[in-house]
Amino acid sequence: QVQLVESGGGLVQPGRSLRLSCAASGFTFSSYTMRWYRQAPGKERELAATISGVGVVQNYADSVKGRFTVSRDNAKNTLYLQMNNLKPEDTAVYYCNTPSLDAWGKGTLVTVSS
Question: What is the Cα 71 distance to its own chain's centre?
Answer without folding.
Answer: 9
